[in-house]
């Protein structure tokens, strides 16, 4: 197995930017995509980081990903807005769509945004962070139009995607609450990372191609494919269906209901609800009660094997501080896949190595 590489965030972003630019993206788009992916690595979500580049480039060459696209307004009802991502890079579509939703929520107190047909929106927590930075509550339901990889509860084969649900809540005077989770027991990208590292998965996360429990990550990455399971048995399954119906059907982007697993593109639909506590008139009690509740929860004595109680968002902030200081480790297999993706677009591997400083 190839040796791992250690990269500083900024040089790694420049290398990824060179690959995206070679795929036809304008400089601004290439920079946004690269920095978004590296930010996912920095926050500890390697599943949504630079390892996505080979898949993106395959989608680009297939025609399922369209560079230099922006959200198209399909319906404008003020606090209600429907957008089409035109299969553009989700890093750009997600950022610009969220900016539209923020503007509407600030004007009306609330915004319901239906975003359809975006290419992979990557770490949905990024868009929640964008909203909470403006003092807004953000609730998002996302579906995935790609190879089905998750089995329904009591089912034995894959029927839908990892369908994330993300909730961001600003906490005045302290870092925000950012719950960003797949409705599967583990994100598909984490299975890819485990496979590339030669690691086994924890029990209960994956079924093989016969529907039997397995620890072998290859069943989530290469044929014959198995299926991930939902978290929390029927509870995660129920939330996954909600994401499909709201993020896919209600947005107009469509749901997954086909046996065709041949396409490389990853399309997302996202229904986002943004709320302004100030406009709601509850900003003061919200700030007080949120602060007191979080303090109360964190006072719980840590259980054996844990150092303290955290809230959603804390692990990412801790990992960010560490990786910005120490660097981002990318396993050798993933880095070779990234170099190969660049080579297909005429980007020399040596130049990428030099840009990344690895």
Plain-language structure description:
The protein has 358 residues and is α+β, with helices and mostly antiparallel strands. The chain folds into 3 domains: 1-62 and 327-358, Malate/L-lactate/L-sulpholactate dehydrogenase, four-helix barrel (Hypothetical Oxidoreductase Yiak, Chain: A, domain 1); 71-184 and 229-286, Ribosomal Protein S8, Chain: A, domain 1 (2-Layer Sandwich), CATH 3.30.1370.60; 186-228, Wheat Germ Agglutinin (Isolectin 2), domain 1 (2-Layer Sandwich). Helices cover 41% and strands 18% of the residues. It is built from 12 helices and 12 strands. It has helices spanning 9-22, 27-42, 53-62, 90-108, 125-132, 188-197, 234-250, 277-280, 283-298, 314-326, 332-344, 349-356; strands spanning 5-7, 72-76, 80-84, 110-119, 137-145, 165-171, 174-181, 206-207, 213-214, 227-228, 267-275, 328-330. The strands form 3 sheets. A 7-stranded mixed beta sheet has the order 2-3-4-11-5-6-7, with helices on both faces. The model has no long low-confidence stretch (mean pLDDT 96).
What's the quick description here?
The chain is of the alpha+beta class. It has 12 helices and 12 strands.
Please describe the topology of this protein.
Blueprint (H helix, E strand, L loop, with lengths): L4 E3 L1 H14 L4 H16 L10 H10 L9 E5 L3 E5 L5 H19 L1 E10 L5 H8 L4 E9 L19 E7 L2 E8 L6 H10 L8 E2 L5 E2 L12 E2 L5 H17 L16 E9 L1 H4 L2 H16 L15 H13 L1 E3 L1 H13 L4 H8 L2
Parallel strand pairs: 3-4
Antiparallel strand pairs: 1-12, 2-3, 4-11, 5-6, 5-11, 6-7, 8-9, 8-10
Helix pairs in contact: 1-2, 1-12, 3-11, 4-5
